[in-house]
Amino acid sequence: MIDDVNLKKEQKFNFTAVSDECIKCGKCKSVCPIFEISHDETTSPRGFIDLLGAYKRDELELDKTTKDIFESCFLCTSCTDVCPNSLPTDTIIEQIRFDIAKKFGIAWYKKAFFWLLRNRKIMDIMAKMGWVFQTCGLKINHKNQSSKFRINLPIEMIKDRTLPFADRKSFLNSYPENIINNKQQVCVPTQESGNEDKIADSEKLSKVAIFIGCIGNYAYTNIGKSLLYILEQLEIDAFIPKKQLCCGAPAYFTGDFNTVDYLIKQNIEYFETFIDDVDAIIVPEATCSAMINTDWEHFLHDQPNWLKRAKKIAPKVIMATKWLNDNTKLNELLSNKKSKNPNLKLPTITYHDPCHAKKMQGIYKEPRNLLDKNYEIHEMSDPAACCGFGGVTMQSEKYHLSKAVGKNKAKMINETNADIVSAECSACRMQITDSLERTNSDITFKNPIELIAEALK
Ligand code: SF4
Ligand code: SF4
Q1: Residue-range domains of the chain with CATH
Q2: Which of 20, 87, 95, 238 has an alpha carbon within 20 to 30 A of 197's alpha carbon?
Q3: Euclidean distance between CA atoms 221 and 224, whole angstroms
Q4: Cα 293 from Cα 47, distance rounded (Å)
Q5: What are phi and psi of 403, to 5 degrees?
Q6: 106 to each of 263, 265, 345, how far by Cα in Å?
Q7: What is the dihedral of CA 350, 429, 393, 160, to 10 degrees?
Q8: Could you give the CA distance from residue 410 to residue 437 in angstroms, rounded to a whole number?
Q9: Is the CB of 255 under 6 A from ligand 2?
Q10: pTM above 0.85?
């Protein structure tokens, strides 16, 4: 993780300084998903770092070949996690993507997508239109929350592809802004007057805001619904900030820094209006959470005023399972729901650790701790191996790489014979559902928040 890096803060974004710190030990290669499929030093963390150093020293031109190389990184942070010098390969790749976007431009469909992310109201209309017309072009699979094109067009990007589909109404448009669950506030008489009631501070229940993420907002809406159900059971008030925009991750990983700048600043200004009124902003999505509490600071490293504002918000932005596990009586509630019948077979699950959860935020014990009360966990051979999602470019122009990495993940999930695979990340969900579908697997995907809500019912 970047906070552990041996480099001085200002050098973390300096390609030559990072390159100079690489001792060429090669530890990063064994965990790198792109190296695993390419077996090519140029597309390995060590190779990326070397090439980026050469580029900075003007010894290497940014041409189509180098563009292709730098776009082959999944930004999974596996290399940073094992590097003895904690070199931030992912961070410098994110920086070079900006240079690539400046020199080569951004494909029209990515530009259109990022424009929609900036304009929530238009995105709402597009999602609604998608919901109305999607059955014409898509075969919908409600069990898997997935769909496939009815006509199998010979285009790599969509051929045999399993995708999520838009729900009738987005999560943000389905609920009121404030949901009061704290119906049992404890009232005690004040010392001064026996007639006046006031809520004892120690008995005040929490209030949390929800940052839902774009895929959870438009497609996997049951995640937000389940989170609201859990908060209701815990009697914790929920605040749904209606003006939240995309965290900026898809644009950041693609190098569209204008969009990232816009989204981060809009969100910071908005979050500041309620941050002091909530205990936390909980996020049932690893990538959005890591983007807000870590990558916003990376992006704003040379804008001191905005950096200061982002830093004030970051500590309150936490993945939902982590916050629920550490701050509530959810474990107790789930234990009480445990079946007393020792012969009853619990549903089996296998848990995939999203890169942005375990490697970037150190979160992997908490979801398992909550789930193991009511589910039997069958661990896969390498739960932390990247699923191969990799961002918009990987899912479009480099989809063959995503498919190759996804195949390995699907194999290890199938080997567990679990009923369900779970991960707190909708990007992983998209990728894993697609990869499993190619193997004709019966294993379905659920976010841990959905599984916890089901267990509470
Ligand atoms: S971030 Fe992941 S894909 Fe990229 S170089 Fe590191 S290990 Fe390889
Ligand atoms: S693990 Fe770190 S120091 Fe070793 S080769 Fe990879 S980037 Fe260089």
Answers
A1: 2-104 (1.10.1060.10), 108-163 (no CATH), 178-326 (1.20.1050.140), 341-456 (3.40.50)
A2: 238
A3: 6
A4: 29
A5: -65, -40
A6: 18, 22, 51
A7: 100
A8: 9
A9: no
A10: yes
Structure tokens that stand for 141 in this block: 């699979």
DSSP 8-state code for residue 284? S
Which residue has the least CA distance to atom 4 on ligand 1?
A: 73
N-term to C-term CA, the chain: 38
Distance CA 252, CA 391 (A): 9
Q: Which two tokens stand for residue 249?
A: 């991750």
Write out the chain's pLDDT in tens, 457 residues.
Answer: 444 445 566 677 788 888 999 999 999 999 999 999 999 999 999 999 999 999 989 999 999 999 999 999 999 999 999 999 989 999 999 999 999 999 999 999 999 999 999 999 999 998 888 877 777 777 888 888 888 877 776 666 777 788 888 888 999 999 999 999 987 654 444 444 444 444 444 455 589 999 999 999 999 999 999 999 999 999 999 999 999 999 999 999 999 999 999 999 999 999 999 999 999 999 999 999 999 999 999 999 999 999 999 999 999 999 999 999 999 999 999 999 887 777 788 899 999 999 999 999 999 999 999 999 999 999 999 999 999 999 999 999 999 999 999 999 999 999 999 999 999 999 999 999 999 999 999 999 999 999 999 999 9
Identify the three-state secondary structure at position 415.
coil
* Residues 297, 456: Cα–Cα separation, whole Å: 37
Tell me the sheet residues that pair with 306. Answer: none
Rounded to a whole number of angstroms, the CA Rg of the chain reads 23
Out of 76, 287, 356, mutate this one to test ligand 1's pocket (max ligand atoms within 8 Å of CB): namely 76
CB 151 within 8 A of CB 203: no
Instruction: Locate all alpha helices (DSSP H) within 28-88, ordered by sequence.
Output: 33-38, 45-56, 64-70, 78-82
Helices (H), 384-447: 392-395, 399-414, 426-437
Give me the helices (H) in 138-240, please. Answer: 214-218, 222-234
Q: Which protein residues are within 6 Å of ligand 1, measured from CB?
A: 31-34, 45, 48, 73-79, 89-90
CA of 28 to the centre of ligand 1 (A): 8
Distance in Å, CA 27 to ligand 1 centroid: 12
Long-range CB pairs of 147-152 (<8 Å, 24+ gap) are 148/437
